[in-house]
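REQUEST ID: PR-0412
SUBMITTED BY: lab tech R.K.
PRIORITY: routine
TASK: structure prediction, single protein chain
INPUT:
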Amino acid sequence: MAIQHAVLALLARGPSYGYQLKGAFEAATGPQWGPLNIGHLYQILDRLSRDSLVVAERQAQPVKPDRVVYQITSAGRAELARWLDEPSPRSGGFRDDFFLKVTAAARSGSAQTVRTVLSNQRGHLLRELRNLDGLRRAAGDPVVGLLLAAASRHVEADLAFVNDAEAVLLADGGALLATVAVAPSEIAASAADAPPAAEGAGPTRAAG
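STATUS: complete
OUTPUT:
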């Protein structure tokens, strides 16, 4: 996740210091993102400073310790413009913990295991959807509302996958599961016999 670019975007509006940037980031992205760790933020600011994308100035305060104020450089503005001008690929391809869980349940051959996994996930997603809907209704910032709506769309897509998995794996009472419950050696042998994937096929994993 390009948090460093979000920090550059905040600094493009004017100089700021660590805790002020933390508050501005959290207010701008809304509750669906969650709190920004201040230690991680300072690591990002140090990296941006090393890359000459921001400059840091230590300012003395009458009572409190010195404050370090960060300001974006011309190189930082150019990097921000480059980032905004490019599309955003998935940072992790289509790898997902729940995909692996469905795979494990299906390969077990147990319809009850599959049913439990899908039911638990559906319940979790429905609760998440209700929570996001409540946050969206309470959001006073239209951009935050838009981000919460986008998060809801992701949850709805996950729910659609749960429904798809149920339709495919359990529609025949679980008879299909007997055909996919194979040992690792059989899976490996099947993969070895399959034709190689075309170059460039499949989702691309972007550099993190």
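NOTES: The longest helix spans residues 142-170.
REVIEWED BY: pending
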